[in-house]
Automatic annotation (TrEMBL):
Cofactor(s) required for function per UniProt: [4Fe-4S] cluster
Enzyme type, top EC level: translocase
Protein name per the record: Ion-translocating oxidoreductase complex subunit C
One GO molecular-function entry: electron transfer activity
Principal location listed in the UniProt entry: membrane
Gene, per the UniProt record: rnfC
Source species of the chain: Tepidanaerobacter acetatoxydans (strain DSM 21804 / JCM 16047 / Re1)
């Protein structure tokens, strides 16, 4: 029986547009805009100034806090601006703008590490930190923080999230097919850094070729096992993945390490492999560019900081009249109001929908059908949380565990009244967090 979790939905997956498209190397951008806060935690401080010449892989933003990750130049060239710029998360973010010189010169400090067998746990974690590696599944949590386990936590399991349950996105799928050895190398580095002897790679059963590819790559290796998961959204959610693979349940307000688990994305593992094998920090990633509004859907290896419009143009541009552009997929992606914003470390996909495919609904009163309750993978009461938001009842929303919401969108998707439940809960979460900060 395939492993899975309670709740969830089965939206149209629409992966056929790109699942058979090999990864293509994107054209070198003429200009990149690199935000200083592409991760959860404290933004970096720029360590370059206007007029400086930089090289590919050179550090340009220093992480001063523990929960942070440095950022690096993705091209060689001249720094033309250090200022707040628009970014995909909305609003402005301090950024470094680099005009490429077209030479793509490598920074002298980018050199391979010692063989993994000669590296200590602390050396591996420090290399991961200095490479600016964060979770590439979208959340952007600094990887070295995940691996720095407090002494009181007993971690016995590593899970590689290769589910890729978000519709349309196939970046990890192609990675598993084309670079399985990098995923496994990165996983082995994580196991050594944490001292964990047991690991699982979770892949949904709609990717049989990826299951076969990874199974061959781990042949003869001890402590690594492929787990075939039922295809269901959000199977790749951290808590849902842990429940499906291990049967353990992360407590309300808790973290995976509270149940002895660390979860890392497949792309993150490959980034670790690149950093250790070549010394190259995280300056590029695989991004799926797809949707009914794209002429030539592709899986592109893009440089961090390339504008979304430049990436779209490399895929033939728009097909028809675009109705919506999202960074990410249709369930958890962020709609973009402008396209001259940069792709960041968490840009797993760029989804363009034609105007005719974008349907707008007027919400109507809740009919108390409880479909949102059945679909919620966290066992919340979305309709109650939405009511609390409408009335500004933030304490009540917190008591009903609004902060546990993973914003997967399942409740909004199944609601027959078309109530934007996820958006209501997101508002409640932001108010609760703001009040907590204010009270501190």
């Amino acid at each position: 029986m395939l492993k899975t979790f309670k709740g969830g939905i089965h939206p149209p997956y629409n992966k056929d547009l790109t699942k058979n498209k090999p990864i293509e190397k994107a054209v070198l951008p003429k200009k990149v805009t690199i935000p200083m806060g592409m991760h959860i935690g404290a933004p970096c401080e720029p360590i370059v100034k206007v007029g400086d010449l930089v090289k590919k892989g050179q550090k340009i933003g220093e992480a001063k806090a523990f929960v942070s990750a440095p950022v690096h130049a993705s091209v060689s060239g001249k720094v033309v601006a250090v200022e707040p710029r628009s970014w995909p998360g909305g609003g402005l973010m301090m950024s470094v703008v680099i005009e490429s010189d077209g030479k793509d010169e490598l920074f002298e400090g980018v050199v391979p590490s010692k063989p993994i067998e000669q590296l200590t746990q602390d050396e591996i974690k420090n290399l991961i930190r200095e490479a600016g590696i964060t979770g590439l599944g979208g959340a952007g949590f600094p990887t070295q923080v995940k691996l720095s386990v407090p002494p009181e936590k007993n971690i016995d399991t590593i899970i590689v999230n290769a589910a890729e349950c978000e519709p349309y996105i196939t970046a990890d799928h192609r990675l598993l097919l084309e670079r399985p050895e990098d995923v496994i190398f990165g996983l082995e580095a994580i196991m050594k850094a944490t001292g964990v002897k047991k690991s699982f790679i979770g892949i949904e059963d709609n990717k049989p070729d990826a299951i076969d590819s990874i199974s061959k790559a781990i042949a003869g290796k001890k402590g690594i096992e492929v787990v075939v998961l039922a295809t269901k959204y959000p199977q790749g959610g951290e808590k849902q993945l842990i429940k499906a693979v291990t049967g353990r349940e992360v407590p309300s307000g808790g973290l995976p390490m509270d149940v002895g688990v660390i979860v890392n994305n497949a792309g993150t593992c490959a980034a670790i492999a690149s950093a250790l094998k070549t010394g190259m920090p995280l300056i590029e990633r695989i991004t799926t560019v797809t949707g009914s509004g794209i002429k030539e859907p592709k899986n592109l290896l893009i440089r961090i900081g390339t504008s979304l419009i430049d990436i779209i143009e490399q895929c033939g541009g728009f097909k028809g009249i675009p109705g919506k552009v999202l960074m990410g997929g249709p369930m958890m992606g962020l709609a973009q109001s402008e396209l001259d914003v940069p792709a960041i470390k968490g840009t797993s996909g760029i989804l363009v929908l034609e105007k005719s495919d974008v349907k707008l609904f007027e919400p109507s009163p809740c009919i108390r059908c409880a479909r949102c309750v059945d679909a919620c993978p966290i066992n919340l009461l979305p309709t109650n949380l939405a009511k609390f938001t409408e009335r500004g009842m933030w304490a009540e929303a917190e008591n009903y565990h609004a902060l546990d919401c993973i914003e997967c969108g399942c409740c909004s998707y199944v609601c027959p009244a078309h109530i934007p439940l996820t958006q209501h809960i997101r508002v409640a979460k932001s108010h609760i967090i703001a009040l907590k900060k204010k009270n501190k």
